Amino acid sequence: MKSGVYKGTVVKLTGIDKVFYAVINIFLIFVLIVVFIPMWSTITLSFRPNAFIGTNLEGMFLPPWKWSFAAYKTLIGNLGFLGALVNSLKIFIYGVATALFLTIPLSYVLSVKTLPGRKPLIIFVLIPYLFSVGLIPTYLVIANIGLVNTLAAVFLPGAIGTYNCLIMYRFFEGLPEELKESARIDGAAEWYILLRIILPLSKPIIMTIGLYYGVAFWNDFFNAMLYINRNDLQPLPIILRNILMASGMNEFVEINAYGEAPVQAIKAASVFMSAIPMLIAYPFIQKYFTKGTLLGSVKG
After folding, report:
1. pLDDT band at 256 (very low <50, low <70, confident <90, very high)
2. Which residue, of 11, 68, 70, 202, has the fewest CB within 10 Å?
3. Does 121 have pLDDT greater than 80?
4. What torsion, rounded to 10 degrees, do the Cα atoms 45, 51, 55, 59 define?
5. In this structure, is the dihedral angle defined by the CA atoms of residues 42, 43, 44 and 49, taken in order, positive or negative?
6. 3 state SS of 4
7. Residue 146: what are its φ and ψ, rounded to 5°?
8. Is residue 66 assigned to a domain?
């Protein structure tokens, strides 16, 4: 048997353990390859010059000194694309801030075991998760409160996600009750307990739920298409849709319209640029992600 060290303790691996870890490693390598190949294909396609002649496989191994930045220059020089990028960033920032501002107090209220009417309130929160009111009533509500053709129409309808609220509520409920009780005995109000005791202990779940909301708002396409008609308010997913649809109708016309960059390179560059903010944000949140999700799902 082979020995390994885990947190100062010697662990002996049996033959079955070795086979298990070998299978897991092979599976993870396979998953890495499956994820990496399409990503690398998209990245290399975005740098492909207009004069390139060859297969997609040959393009994936095109040396960097032959890459072309024409597709990125085209997108960055397009005011419509830059405006859509700014709109998506606004939706992302305002949406995450609003969602956490609303979800955190609601989740904390649900976690207070002495709250009168707590169980009916939990059922009331669960109802929208189980039953949808439909598209037309939702649109009428958004229109009647004046949110049509505003960025708020993209993130306000989903500002409180029931699933996210339940995960956070379970996390709050799993925190030591003695901390809350001692603060209440000292005369602390509930808002003080939430701000000064609960939130400092809840960084993993806040970062995790913030990531959930951020990804949802950044990629939100349907609400933007439904509620926003003004071109200057279009977010990035709508612009990407327009590029893909336009290039799919007539590639030769689009090549001339965009200039030196081929259509496929522009499509790949737009997809890659839209993913950059999430790629930048995820490494900073990843260390909280697993801990926040597991604690929020299991405790209670």
Report:
1. very low
2. 11
3. yes
4. -40
5. positive
6. strand
7. 80, 30
8. no
Structure tokens at 128: 């929208």
pLDDT of residue 122 exceeding 50, the answer is yes
Give CA–CA dist 202/171, Å, rounded: 8
Paired tokens of 236: 């990035």
% of residues, the chain, pLDDT over 70: 85
For residue 44, being part of any structural domain is answered with no
Distance (Å, whole) CA 222 – CA 205? 27
Taking alpha carbons only, the member of 234, 206, 205 closest to residue 220 is 234
If you ran DSSP here, which 8-state letter would residue 65 be given?
G
Q: Which residues of 16-25 are buried (b: 16+ CB within 10 A; e: fewer)?
A: eeeeeeeeee
Q: Which residue has the higher pLDDT, 297 or 36?
A: 36
How many structural domains compose the chain? 1
227 in Cβ contact with 105 (< 8 Å): no
pLDDT at 127 over 80: yes
**Minimum mean pLDDT among 150-159, 165-174, 178-187, 237-246: which range?**
237-246
Classify residue 140: in a domain, yes or no. Answer: yes
Residue 259: band (very low, low, confident or very high) from pLDDT cuts 50, 70, 90: low
The DSSP letter of residue 6 is E
Instruction: Give the orientation angle of helix 236-249 with respect to helix 251-258, to 10 degrees.
Output: 120
Neighbours of 130 (CB within 10 A): 8
Amino acid at 153: A
pTM (2 decimals)?
0.76
In the prediction, which pLDDT does 13 show? 72
34 is a domain residue = no
Q: Give dist(CA 159, CA 163) in Å, integer.
A: 12
Domain that holds residue 216: 77-232+292-298
What is the Cα–Cα distance from 247 to 263, expressed in whole angstroms?
6
- What CATH number has the domain bearing residue 138? 1.10.3720.10
Contact partners, residue 46, CB within 8 Å, separation at least 6: 71, 72, 265, 268, 269, 271, 272
